[in-house]
């Protein structure tokens, strides 16, 4: 993971300014720092009366939210005040409207609470205070906070542009499988996974075409020429007679960052740096052709590379979520076993899923992620193990 993260980090682009709504889902390129005290002025917490000195008080005016408050200049004065309105200079207390009465003489009587009923400047944050560091994902809540601080735009990392190239003569883009051919199951799902990981897939997924070395070189070159920062290919990651990705990378002068990963499923995945004709380089993730293996490659290699690109921290150095197993999960010898699991809402335990072969999608469609079983070990029911989660949008449940 760290090598993939470092590869993405090395390609981190310069920050861009994005208006607040457009910054949602991006990552802060600079710390979010308050530009003024929050609140910027004393603010009433209740509807009531701002009073000065002992009562009863003579009414001198009304203060609504958004208006400039005239000061209370003498004891015995008060002004009606709304929640969120500016507390006038000279105020010694605020009497809640439900605790006050207006007499026949027009004067206000009542007892203020012992605790002041207004927010002081800087109560939430002081001017110049760092609220979130660079690398923080931008959420709707953070956008609201930025607006309250006076921001109209934020410095964020631009989303990487991704292209998906589907290879395989055996693949159909429509219709029923049969006669030795199967439906392409990766083209429809990879853009969704990539968008959940923070990338933008802004060009159509290539439909399965002629599976030749020349076709690989041409498709990869065209994808980078069209502006892709990351190219994800499917299939051909082994070294068989019809596996063309490695020869294509050699022809393109690519540098391997990761050539394979000792995990099951997903072993023949790769990540490479491809030089671009105009200078610089792009990343190519070679995903295995089996659908579940391809998703393993996404969460193992593509996710950390995109985290590095966005300026987020290295996932390998962050605590992994953990789950308690409700059933045993076998190991895979000297390789790490990534076992599809779902979480049972009834007991909160994680259970291995059936239909979890590397070419199957039925288990993946229900999964919360992959339970990580270390090499040369197995896990028993009740054991707590790391979870490599699937990327989800808010509201989605694995």
Automatic annotation (TrEMBL):
Signal peptide stretch: none
EC number, UniProt record: 2.10.1.1
GO biological process terms held by the UniProt record: Mo-molybdopterin cofactor biosynthetic process
Taxonomy, superkingdom: Bacteria
Class of enzymatic activity (EC top level): transferase
Catalytic activity: adenylyl-molybdopterin + molybdate = Mo-molybdopterin + AMP + H(+)
PANTHER family per UniProt: GEPHYRIN, MOLYBDOPTERIN BIOSYNTHESIS PROTEIN
Role of this protein: Catalyzes the insertion of molybdate into adenylated molybdopterin with the concomitant release of AMP.
Protein name: Molybdopterin molybdenumtransferase
Lineage: Bacteria, Bacillati, Actinomycetota, Actinomycetes, Micromonosporales
